[in-house]
Amino acid sequence: MRTNKKKRKISLFNFLVVLFVSAGVIVFFVYNIIVVNSLAVENNNIKTDITKVTSVNNNLQTEIERLSNIDNIKPVAAGKLDLKFPAAKPKKLTINKSEIENLEK
């Protein structure tokens, strides 16, 4: 018994098509990896910027609270603006709606 084994020839066209398709797939995956890495770097930079801005914002909020303290405002109000704090509490004023209507007539 003899077995005839025929060697199958691979056509050059089919070989080139497979080569170009596989090269295209490889290029696509490499490009995808590059884009993902660049986006990860950009994401980290933005997170760092957010952290810095949050820190500055917290510092400014602390500064606002410090400067708006009444102990800091009193000397400025008394010295530069000649404002004086009242000795007695202000009186409460109540107005009835009927009194306003009587004044309008």
Q: What secondary-structure arrangement, pairings included, does this model have?
A:
Elements: H1 12-67, H2 70-79, H3 97-104
Can you walk me through this structure?
- Helices cover 70% and strands 0% of the residues.
- It is mainly α.
- The protein has one domain.
- It is elongated and about 120 Å long.
- The N and C termini lie far apart (130 Å).
- The model has no long low-confidence stretch (mean pLDDT 88).
Brief digest:
The chain is an all-alpha fold. 70% of the residues lie in helices and 0% in strands. It has one domain.
Kindly estimate the percentage of residues that lie in beta strands according to DSSP.
under 5%
- What is the N-to-C succession of helices and strands? HHH
| Main sheet attributes: strand count, strand direction, barrel closure | none
- Note the gap between the termini: 130 Å
Average predicted confidence as pLDDT = 88
Q: Helix/strand/pairing class, anyone?
A: mainly alpha
Shape verdict? elongated
User: Spans with pLDDT under 50 lasting ≥5 residues?
Assistant: none
Count of folded domains: 1
Helix content: over 70%
Radius of gyration: 41 Å
Provide a count of the helices: 3
